[in-house]
Amino acid sequence: MPARNDLQKWALEMERFCAYQERSTYEIVVKLNRKKVDKEHINDIISHLKANNFLNEPRFVEAYVRGKCNIKGWGPHKIKAGLKAHKISEELIKSGLGNLKLTDQTQLLNAWLNKKRAALRNEPEGPKKTAKIIRFLLSKGFEMPAIMDLVKTS
Predict the structure, then answer these.
(1) Same domain for 73 and 41?
(2) What is the pTM of this model?
(3) Which residues contact 124 (CB under 8 A, 6 or more apart)?
(4) More exposed terminus of the chain, fewer Cβ within 10 Å: N or C?
(5) Are both 67 and 50 inside the same structural domain?
(6) Helix, strand, or coil (residue 32)
(7) Which phi and psi angles does 91 have, rounded to 5°?
(8) Structural domain tally of the chain?
C-alpha cells in the first residue's frame, strides 16, 4: 500500500495537470492507471480534485466544444464523438452541443467547402469530385443534410 506521502504527491501532480488545461475524469483515471495507482486511491484523488474545483465535467465540456469548434473547425458529430471518447454523459454532451450556434456551423461548413474546392480545383467537375467533397465534410463532423444542401446550392 502506498504511503500517505505518495497519495499527496499524486494529488499534487494531478492538480498541476488539471491547472494547465481543462481535463475530463477519464483523462485523470488513464493517467493514474499508467502510474499503477490502485482504484481506491484513484477515486480519492478524483474526489479531492472535484472538491477543490480542479476537475469539473461541465466546464470541461464547455471548453472542449468551444475549442474544437472555434480552433479546429469541427462539426457537431466529430465533437460528440470526441466527448464520448472522454466518457462524458449523454446529458452533458447534449448540453454542450446545445451551445453551438447554427450560423457558426454554417460558416464553418462554407469555409471547409471553399478550402476543399480550392484543393480540388484541377479536378474535373462531376460526381467523383462531389463525392470527395462530401466525404471530406463528413470527416469534419458535419451532418449529411446540411452538406447536401450546401453542395447543391453552390
Answers:
(1) no
(2) 0.86
(3) none
(4) N
(5) no
(6) helix
(7) -60, -45
(8) 3
